[in-house]
Design brief:
This protein is α/β, with parallel strands linked by helices. The chain is built from 26 helices and 17 strands. The protein is globular.
Length: 607
């Protein structure tokens, strides 16, 4: 029987293949007493050193394959191994209780586990995988257990596990691991970050994934929607095979567009940029033809370390990306995290509703020390490329004025120190709160550009949590209120003479390209992989056709009316240039054409 499982989409794409259950056995830990205490302490200390050397090797391998930003994940592992709060209690138990090293270490780690379990914090939940990774590695060495590594896979498979440690994912070979499914974890876990870097479809938070599957069962991993099908029926399998094949064909066809200009049929240029979160993604953006980075999320600099990144560390990272992208722009968004994600530094308590709480620009303005540090780093790097600064979650002009005051303080400090920077470094605001869209005319007087973050704008405008299955159906980019808010922002920007880009997921959907251009948007920023399809859509329409389309859409009253008109009103040559609309979950649930399901079918690959 087919089993449909729902989780969190952590790495996009589709994978179809047999399941490999990755369920390493925990080592047997004997609570025996030992006679030679100091020899046992020595064995324990030597094991920590041996594991540290193993981690350094893994770090080097990850840096070679994916880059320095990914490799920094393992710096935290080295810090854990060196932590006296872990080492001292273990050696104390060995000496006082005459426990074996493995039992003493296991006892120490039980306390660490309990402390992490008691913390109601998404960031620390994601970091728990790092703690467990170290625990497993040390215990395996002490118990002389052979490592069960994913690099030993020799055939294509979908890996299903309770959790994957960063070490597990670091050993994955992209040629064999088609997709990843875990029962725990989320989008910010280190395993998810590495999976995205390897472009392996992944879904996390899939409850009872192991209980629902056996090794060899056929599985579909839909990383875009967060869905997993075990032993899919013929109709579901047929639809996903069609979609996976279409993805591959579209990617191949679109690769020819990389070096062509992004212009409408009547010669209007449109700027297409990429969204990134680590510096190694710049290569991907350039490969897909990005004309700049429209959104660099700096959060990973803060999440990849147990301490705040220094000004020099940030300057080095921003400089490296700016040089790679020059002369194209690099828009650096200042920290967009909630206090709950930085509680290891700020010692904050959990919030009832962090999405409406102390986060983004609110957090930065309340901690002007590290906010000014980040602004100084951006300014210092601005002499090396076309860097622009962008503030997240602006809700009113007061916040914008206050943020600019901190920016001016940073400028004055650098001038006094004789440090060069770009005096004309542009400053912009993200429009992702409905209040900001309503007062966009006031905000436009204080900045050089706007960037509309449609993901949050939709969520806040419609009051819907798209992660909540009961109300996710209400999350619709074509809601009339959302389109009117976008139009209002564009009109306010036009009156002030500043450009507007869209950097949410809506920007990366080629079916929305003509509508956004017709609403007056100047540029689009998206996942680099989406750029070729959007470029093809833009090159297939005139700006006048786009404006007529948008004018009609603004008069319509429902999402359904807008969607139907959008599909009917686009010229035939435009529709032919677009990929088929992605299947909705409702369509995927329907009965479809039968497909021959072959027994013992090998992995079909990923898209």
């Amino acid at each position: 029987m087919m089993v449909r499982l729902k989780g969190i989409q952590t790495s996009p794409g589709i994978a179809i293949g047999p399941i490999y259950l990755h369920d390493p056995e925990d080592p047997w830990i004997d609570d025996r007493r030992i006679s030679d205490v100091e020899a046992e302490v020595g064995r324990f200390v030597a094991t920590l050193e041996e594991v540290a050397e193993d981690v350094k090797v893994i770090r080097a391998q990850v840096e070679e394959r994916l880059g320095r930003d990914y490799a920094q994940i393992f710096d935290a592992h080295l810090l854990i191994l060196e932590d006296v709060a872990l080492k001292d209690p273990t050696t104390q138990l060995i000496r006082q209780e005459r426990f074996s090293a493995e039992y003493a270490f296991w006892r120490t780690f039980q306390g660490v586990r309990r402390q992490f379990d008691a913390i109601q914090d998404d960031y620390f939940r994601a970091r728990k995988a790092d703690i467990l990774d170290i625990e497993k590695r040390v215990l395996a060495k002490l118990c002389r257990q052979e490592d069960v590594l994913l690099d030993r896979l020799t055939t294509e498979a979908v890996v299903v596990a309770h959790d994957l440690t960063p070490s597990d994912t670091a050993h994955m070979h992209r040629d064999c691991v088609l997709g990843v499914v875990t029962e725990v974890g989320g989008t910010t876990s280190h395993a998810a970050i590495i999976a995205r870097g390897l472009e392996i479809p992944a879904v996390a938070g899939v409850e009872s994934a192991i209980a629902s599957a056996e090794s060899g069962d056929l599985a579909i991993v839909d990383g875009r929607r967060g869905l997993v099908y075990v032993n899919p029926d013929a109709g579901t399998l047929a639809r996903y095979r069609v979609e996976a094949k279409r993805f591959q064909e579209v990617r191949k066809d679109l690769s020819a567009l990389k070096d062509l200009p992004t212009v409408t049929l009547d010669g209007i240029a449109v700027n297409l940029q990429g969204n990134i979160e680590i510096s190694e993604e710049v290569d991907s953006a350039l490969a897909y033809g990005a004309e700049g980075i429209g959104l660099y999320r700096t959060e990973y600099l803060y999440l990849a370390s147990s301490s705040l990144p220094t000004e020099d560390e940030q300057t080095e990272t921003y400089t490296r990306i700016a040089r790679q992208m020059a002369p194209h722009p690099l828009v650096i968004r200042t920290l967009d995290l909630g206090g709950d994600k930085l509680s290891y530094i700020l010692h904050t308590s959990p919030e009832m509703n962090p999405f409406l709480g102390w986060r983004a620009i609110r957090l930065s303005l309340a901690n002007k020390g590290f906010f000014r540090t980040q602004l100084r780093a951006i300014l210092r790097a601005s002499v090396t490329g076309n860097i622009q600064i962008m503030y997240p979650m602006i809700s009113g002009v007061e916040e914008l004025i206050e943020a600019n005051e901190v920016l001016e303080e940073a400028r004055e400090e650098l001038r006094a120190e004789g440090v060069p920077f770009d005096e004309r470094c542009p400053v912009g605001a993200m429009i992702e709160v409905p209040a900001a869209a309503v007062v966009a005319d006031q905000l436009a007087e204080e900045v050089d550009f706007f960037s509309i973050g449609t993901n949050d704008l939709i969520q806040y405008a419609i009051a819907v949590d798209r992660g909540n299955e009961k109300v996710a159906y209400l999350f619709d980019p074509l809601h009339p209120a959302v389109l009117r808010l976008i139009h209002n922002v564009v009109e306010a920007a036009d009156r002030q003479g500043i450009p507007v880009t869209v950097c949410g997921e809506m920007a990366g959907d080629p079916w929305f390209s003509a509508l956004l251009l017709g609403l007056g948007v100047d540029g689009l920023s998206m996942s680099p992989m989406a750029i070729p399809a959007v470029k093809r859509a833009i090159r297939s329409i005139t700006m006048e056709e786009a404006r007529v389309l948008a004018g009609t859409v603004l008069s319509l009253r429902s999402c359904e009316e807008i969607r139907n008109h959008l599909q009917e009103a686009l010229p035939p040559e435009v529709r032919q240039a677009l990929p088929e609309p992605l299947f909705t979950e409702a369509v995927l649930e329907e009965d479809g054409p039968e497909a021959r399901v072959e027994a013992d079918r090998p992995g079909e690959g990923r898209a």
